[in-house]
Amino acid sequence: MSSTATVGDLVSQPYKYGFVTDIETEKIAKGLDEDVVRLISAKKQEPAFLLDFRLRAYRQWLQMQEPDWAALGFPAINYQNIIYYAAPKQQEKKSSLDEVDPKLLETFEKLGIPISEQKRLSNVAVDAVFDSVSIATTYKEKLAEHGVIFCSISEAVKEHPELIERYLGTVVPSNDNFFAALNSAVFSDGSFVFIPRGVECPMELSTYFRINSGDTGQFERTLIVAEEGASVSYLEGCTAPMFDTNQLHAAVVELVVLDDASIKYSTVQNWYAGDENGVGGIYNFVTKRGQCRGDRSRISWTQVETGSAITWKYPSCVLQGADSVGEFYSVALTNNRQQADTGTKMVHVGPRTRSTIVSKGISAGHSANSYRGLVQVGPKAIGARNFSQCDSMLIGDHAAANTYPYIRCQQPEARIEHEASTSRISADQLFYLQSRGIGFEEAVSMMVSGFCRDVFNQLPMEFAAEADKLLALKLEGSVG
Amino acid sequence: MIRPDAPVLLEIRDLRASVDEQPILKGVNLMIRAGEIHAVMGRNGSGKSTLSKVLAGHPAYSVTGGSVLYRGEDLLALEPEQRARIGLFLGFQYPIEIPGVSNLEFLRVATNGRRLAQGQEELDTFAFEDLVRERLQVVQMDPAFLERSVNEGFSGGEKKRNEILQMALLEPLVAILDETDSGLDIDALRIVAGGVNHLAGPDNATLLITHYQRLLDVITPDFVHVMAAGRILRTGGKELALELEDRGYDWVDEELASLEAGEAARTPLEVA
Ligand SMILES: Nc1ncnc2c1ncn2[C@@H]1O[C@H](COP(=O)(O)OP(=O)(O)OP(=O)(O)O)[C@@H](O)[C@H]1O
Ligand SMILES: [Mg+2]
Q1: Do the chains contact at A1 and B76, CB–CB below 8 Å?
Q2: pLDDT value for B118
Q3: What is the pLDDT of residue A7?
Q4: DSSP code, position B37
Q5: Which end of chain A, N or C, is surrounded by fewer C-beta atoms within 10 Å?
Q6: Longest Cα pair distance anywhere in chain B, in angstroms?
Q7: Containing H/E element for A78?
Q8: Strands laid side by side in the A133-137 sheet
Q9: Is the pLDDT of residue A6 over 50?
């Protein structure tokens, strides 16, 4: 017989981004205490308010426990065995890209993120973060002409401290949860975006996160503010080398949206997922939350989660303003031994607030994939509406999918609808497509992208095709 | 149409196949030349669908012996998609539903794969729309079916028409139609049979698996084969089907029993 597989033995395509860049790195010693927090703050020459913010978070963190309610299993993390700051050795952030270490530029080119002047993506401005620091941001001047600030958060602390002080920690308070507290204490870099009143950001903004060191945690912090009537579309991507140890990634993202403003936040997460036996891979514990503070404001989260050994992530919307809108579109794919517990929270506070949740979980191999979502409607949210759709697709016989929808409603007239389905890619479906001349992998990818279409349609055009390819790649070997 | 000098499209020799170690095909022999229409009949469970799926390359069946040549080439060495691209077509007894995959997109990708293999250029979406609308008429199908997911929620008869639409687009050289007639109402049977006749020509061949003479009234077979217990027990002309209609399959049991007794008696001798 031909080598045509049976559902269960296509072997995983090697992870394309698993290389390590050989570059001199400045690292501080392993472990975490108040001095480390002070040291990070000092290295970044931060103003006093920020050091206070960090110290307060650190002290809160000491009192907190790792959350244990997610459907995830992993050995205890030793927080004293992690390096909390690592940066490629280059003293100051360079004013011109020509001065950036060519090895770094090369790394990003290899990842498909050209940041050198000649090869930039047209109409996408990129902030490139390598381990703990941002190494380059493109198109800054062009954006500045429109009053848009797009830079690393370290730079923003120096150049726009008043904005940072006004907004940082106001959406995700430092004691929000264990990982958010840890991040607030030790965050090293990340992106800052500010779109002033009435401005529609003239290009896509994008941050690309790269973990390079094997023993370093990555704690980035992103803050995006859209003033009245402003709008922006932002995309983040991430990859990491293959190590046989686990790296901790605990990021915080905060979005603030005022009257009539909107933020569209897209993620294509492709951290290293570990090997087929579950050795190595990133532990991804991320807190993402947006606040629709203004009336008629809008936040849309789109995520394509394909990497990480463990994903713990619930991008949420607090819908305060009247008629504000929150959206969550998610594809989470797990293969081999990956575990994902992901979903969203939609908190309806203001009247006539609306939210939409579309979650597509794909589990292959021996992986476990859970959707966990909360729809909460407060007493003042008169006329609030929510629609949720949670679909799971199983590939092979050993994968697991779970759905945990929570509803808390204090508004009797709110309309909350929930639909859910589970399906399986069967050997017969694959054979049917193959018997019409469609290759095995293309057949899988047709079925998977059909399943994910509602979510991919939400991605910025430049990235939708990429997401399709990424999923196909990740599934290579999982069906057979 | 029988032409002894027509090229051989498919040659099955002593084909044996099993599923989960359980032998199902026990030595099938069959030769099909261009221009011919063959009918395979036989009791439920005699192995007709298994034969068709083994030919198409279904991964659940393992070939344990024998050979299949497709225009002189080893068919069994090819992946299912390669077999399809070079012109083998299987119309499924139970067409599969594929939610989320648009029928139109599916038909386009399939058609283009076949075209590329034949050295023709791929059709863009517009050119394909034109082609598919033309071929829809072969089966008198509503264009609305193009917008739906592959077979999803199609009625039994609609699924069968969709199979023939695929056949009309792929223009196979050897089409195996597994009970395409079952589940069709009288009008649909006429339409589908008309489609098959329309597509049959001197350069291709059709293998019809069916239980009913009413299909063979509209599509006249050149050969009728009776399958039993995983092999072809008897081959005849179209009159064999009429005989079956008349006599049923009881005689098959007798013939099979004596065949198997003969084999059992022979085996030890051969060993010795
Ligand atoms: N995947 C399978 N697993 C187990 N048994 C199978 C499988 N496929 C076929 N068989 C068995 O092989 C035998 C032949 O089945 P097949 O479907 O080929 O019969 P058929 O001649 O097409 O019958 P029908 O006229 O009812 O369609 C049956 O006994 C069937 O149960
Ligand atoms: Mg059958």
Answers
A1: yes
A2: 93
A3: 28
A4: E
A5: N
A6: 68
A7: none
A8: A133-137, A124-130, A204-210, A231-239, A262-269, A298-305, A325-334, A354-363, A385-395, A415-425
A9: no
Element (H, E) at A113: none
- Burial-class residue A40 by CB neighbours within 10 Å (0-12, 13-18, 19+): buried
**Nearest atom (ligand 1) to Cα of B230:** 14
- Beta-strand relationship, B174-178 and B88-91: parallel
Residue A460, both tokens? 């910025």
Handedness of CA B144, B149, B152, B153 (dihedral sign): negative
Least confidently predicted of A3-7, A161-165, B135-139: A3-7
CB–CB contact A437 B149 (8 Å): no
Written as six digits, the tokens of A99 are: 């001065």
Question: Pairing mode, if any, of strands A133-137 and A124-130?
Answer: antiparallel
In the structure encoding, which two tokens stand for residue A451, read together? 């399943």
Give the tens place of pLDDT for each residue, B212-240: 999 999 999 999 999 999 999 999 999 99
Domain ranges (residues) in chain A = 20-320+427-475
**Identity of the residue numbered B259:** L
Measured between beta carbons, the chain B residues lying within 8 angstroms of A439 are: 79, 81
pLDDT digits (tens, 9 = 90+) for B46-98: 999 999 999 999 999 999 999 999 999 999 999 999 999 999 999 999 999 99
Higher pLDDT, B55 or A123: B55
Helix (H, G, I), strand (E, B) or coil at B228: strand
Ligand 1: does its nearest atom lie under 6 Å from the Cβ of B60?
A: yes
ipTM of the complex: 0.94
pLDDT at A119 over 80: no
In the prediction, which pLDDT does B87 show?
Answer: 96
Which regions of A378-414 does DSSP assign to beta strands (E)?
A: 385-395, 400-409
Domain boundaries B8-93+173-271, corresponding CATH code: 3.40.50.300
Confidence of residue A425 (pLDDT cuts 50, 70, 90): confident
Sign of CA pseudo-dihedral B148, B149, B153, B157: positive
- Give the C-alpha separation, A295 to B138, whole Å: 57
- Find out whether A177 and A285 touch, Cβ atoms under 8 Å: no
Ligand 1 nearest-atom number relative to CA B211: 25
Residue-range domain boundaries for chain B: 8-93+173-271
Q: Do B6 and B174 touch, CB atoms closer than 8 A? A: no
Q: Could you tell me how far CA A2 lies from the centroid of its own chain? A: 41
Q: How many helices (H) and strands (E) does chain A have?
A: 10, 23
Residue recorded with tokens 């090895």: A103
Measured between beta carbons, which residues in chain A are less than 8 angstroms from residue B61?
A: 1
Q: A216 CB contacts (<8 Å, ≥6 apart)? A: A27, A82, A83, A84, A85, A86, A131, A132, A247
Residues 6+ apart with CB under 8 A from B120: none
Residues in the 5 Å CB sphere of ion ligand 2 = B 48-49, 93
Q: What is the pTM of this model?
A: 0.79
The CB density around residue B7, as the number of other CB atoms within 10 Å, is: 13
All residues of chain A having their beta carbon less than 8 Å from the beta carbon of residue B96 are 426, 428-429, 431-432
Contacts 24+ apart (CB under 8 A), B201-204: B201/B35, B202/B1, B202/B3, B202/B6, B202/B34, B202/B35, B203/B34, B203/B35, B203/B173, B204/B9, B204/B34, B204/B35, B204/B87, B204/B171, B204/B172, B204/B173, B204/B174, B204/B175
Q: Which residues of B touch A450 (CB under 8 A)?
A: 98-102, 149
**Alpha carbons A340 and A363: distance in angstroms, whole number:** 9
- Judged by CB atoms closer than 8 Å, whether chains meet at B81 and A439 is answered as yes
H helices of chain B, where?
48-56, 80-85, 103-117, 125-136, 156-170, 186-199, 213-218, 238-247, 250-271
Residue with CA nearest ligand 1 atom 31? B45
Residues of A with CB under 8 A from a CB of B: 1-6, 423, 426-429, 431-440, 442, 446-447, 450-451, 453
